[in-house]
Design goal:
heterodimer; A: mainly beta; 7-stranded mixed sheet; 4-stranded antiparallel sheet; 11 strands; globular; B: mainly beta; 9 strands
């Protein structure tokens, strides 16, 4: 247990569906992240939030929409995804943005887009 | 961020010491070296971080030579449960910088009985 939880753990959706991934951290951290890990590819940073403000958006398609209502919760809203978006989506949190701050990862959501 | 190069895979046996070396030839003065471990279908987990010389914790040791152009993660007496992908990351630590962890392909360590 890392103190970061993600739901659901597995999700299968069609290309026309709308779904949301949820992440919650119980560590009192003020920075949260979304990563994507496709098969046989390195982890890709998608979004970074600090104190509920988005500080990084790595050219992610608009069909992925993040939301950070407070420092403990992070959502990733999914809409009209493509099969190539099937991947493991990982959430992480850290005390601050400095690289010295260890990132704590959740278990991930395994997403399959049909 | 400094580019890193590490072996794609390594094999070992239970009880052996495993050393995984990472090259980062263009490391900058304010860059730190961080290692993460990832088990299948799980998120990465921080192992150790260092700037120079040697760092040791309850899990591993990190050796960094004087020129800092490489680093070696040392895992003492590995067990089957140490089978995982190990990532070496290099990045700056200064106020205001976004903590952008750039993960490479990592090293898949396979521990045999």
């Amino acid at each position: 247990e890392t103190g970061v939880t993600q739901t659901p753990r597995h999700l299968v959706m069609g290309m026309t569906n709308k779904k949301s991934l949820k992440c919650e951290q119980h560590l009192g951290h003020n920075a949260m992240y979304w990563y994507k890990q496709s098969a046989k590819k390195p982890l890709e940073l998608m979004f970074v939030y600090s104190l509920e403000e988005r500080v990084e958006n790595n050219s992610v398609p608009s069909r992925f929409s993040p939301e950070c209502p407070n420092s403990s919760h992070l959502f990733l809203h999914l809409h009209t995804l493509q099969p190539e978006d099937s991947a493991l989506y990982l959430c992480a949190s850290s005390q601050g943005l400095d690289i010295n701050n260890e990132q704590f990862f959740g278990p991930g959501t395994r997403l399959t887009v049909l | 961020l400094a580019k890193t190069t590490q072996p794609i895979s390594m094999d070992s046996y239970e009880g052996q010491e495993v050393n995984i070396t990472c090259s980062h030839n263009n490391i900058a003065t304010n860059d730190y070296i961080t290692w993460y471990q990832q088990f299948p279908s799980q998120g990465p987990r921080f192992i150790i971080q260092g700037y120079k010389t040697k760092v040791t914790n309850e899990v591993a040791s990190l050796f960094i030579p004087a020129d800092r152009k490489s680093s070696t993660l040392s895992l003492p007496r590995v067990s089957l449960s140490d089978t995982a992908v190990y990532y070496c990351l290099v990045g700056p630590s200064y106020g205001g910088a976004t903590n952008k962890l750039i993960f490479g392909t990592g090293t898949l360590l396979a521990v045999q009985p």
